[in-house]
């Protein structure tokens, strides 16, 4: 499973959507992964089980472990685990980089100097105390959050998944195919034993996020068993210094330094909701023309920098992302 994929599996076209297929790039790799699951899992009476002793990894910026949805803090929601450590650790990096979208928090930190931004994360390692039943989800585009069997609190799901090296799919770096397991803690908490917690260095992840072969174990600072979370948040300046000054518009995918993004937000075409008098007078046609201009603009930017490309699909899986006002951002992985 060492092949590197540089396409976002959510970039599906009308044909693959209609057929319910993955995009061609992923078909072979995903099919190999499914075959691997069928060997890895135990089969009893035509049902698959994750084996007792299996390790499950959970990456987050939260401590102690709460489980559930990381974006909403709802403990009763589905919890995501990596069957491999890599996807769980890169998810921590994704959460850290996601903070670039939290305009209000950034402004507050910038003005007051308050340490409001996470620079590190935590990796939790769980061991299965018994065999637990699981359903194989055979497509990489399928989101367990939108899949009936996975939403059943008594069931668990195993499925192929990509990792993001940043706040969105990183086409420059790409991804390997990883494996995710979803379950509900209220059902399975007694089947899981937390065996280790590690403090993970966000800066190391940032420095190495372009190296697809980077061994994520090198990002472990140390084992962490304190009763409370480490007080190591940073302010805007420090965040900037560590994670670069590349920020993102609250309404679209425009990127740049924080000040440039803030300036852009004032006139962002996607912002036009609380219509001012000026806007009311505008004819529909004008709005359409503006939108077309905006798209043209976007295209130009895309050519310059493919990383700016935004994701198009709603069905994306992981959970946890902050809810953006803009519909475009709804299409990111949700956990
Ligand atoms: Zn914008």
Q: What order do the helices and strands come in, and which of them pair?
A:
Layout: H1 14-19, H2 24-40, E1 42-44, E2 47-50, E3 55-60, E4 79-82, H3 85-98, H4 103-112, E5 120-128, E6 132-136, H5 148-151, E7 157-161, E8 178-183, H6 185-188, E9 192-201, H7 202-208, E10 220-223, H8 236-243, E11 247-248, E12 255-256, H9 258-267, H10 277-281, H11 284-304
Parallel strand pairs: 6-7
Antiparallel strand pairs: 1-2, 2-6, 3-5, 4-8, 5-9, 7-8, 9-10, 11-12
The structure holds zinc ion.
Zinc ion (ZN) binds at residues 249, 251-252, 254, 264-265, 268, 270.
Short summary of the structure?
By secondary structure, the protein is α+β, with helices and mostly antiparallel strands. It has a domain at 14-245.
Supply the key terms:
alpha+beta; binds zinc ion; four-stranded antiparallel beta sheet; globular; six-stranded mixed beta sheet
Q: Proportion of β residues?
A: 15-25%
Order the strands across the largest sheet as they lie in space: 1-2-6-7-8-4
Share of helix, binned: 25-40%
Mean pLDDT: 84
Taking the alpha carbons of the first and last residues, their distance comes to 24 Å
* Element string (H = helix, E = strand): HHEEEEHHEEHEEHEHEHEEHHH
* Approximate shape: globular
Structural class, from helix and strand content?
alpha+beta
Give the number of DSSP strands.
Answer: 12
Query: Which molecules are bound besides the chains?
Result: zinc ion
Low-confidence stretches: 274-289, 303-331
Largest sheet geometry: 6 strands, mixed
Cα gyration radius (Å): 21 Å
Q: Count of helical segments?
A: 11
